[in-house]
Amino acid sequence: MASEPSPPESLPAIQNEHQELLSLVKSIKRRLASSPWQDPMVPSLLDSLREHLESHFEFEESDDGFDHLVQKAPWVEPRVEALIAEHRKMLSSACELAAEARSSDRTAPRWEQLKASFGALEDELTVHEAKEHDLLQEVYTQDVGDKD
User: Fold this and answer.
1) Residue 135: closest CA among 60, 27, 23, 48
2) CB atoms within 10 A of CB 125
3) Global confidence as pTM
């Protein structure tokens, strides 16, 4: 009889990545609160966010991430597919933000648009992370409850 898959060893890594992303998002948000285009680090940090999201999403979509969840709890597959679709949308938004920050049109209205777009991405990331957290809790809490 095959044993049920246990939480992957990579689960703490996913949680640590979420903390790193949160820290990077907070840093960008602080810098965007400064005077328009006065912080030269904003474009670089937005590039870093894009790169970090790309590698993070790739990791989550690997065998040790969402694939493991679907193997363990096949009924979550539609939710996993929705999360993956959100990855594509958020990565696209991050790419657009990074390009916008490198734009030569450095006006105050463009800065405000950049801040607003970043705020929307931040909101999406927050909601998305909560969905992932809930999904992980559901799958692994049910596993523990089923064994009692």
Assistant:
1) 60
2) 20
3) 0.85
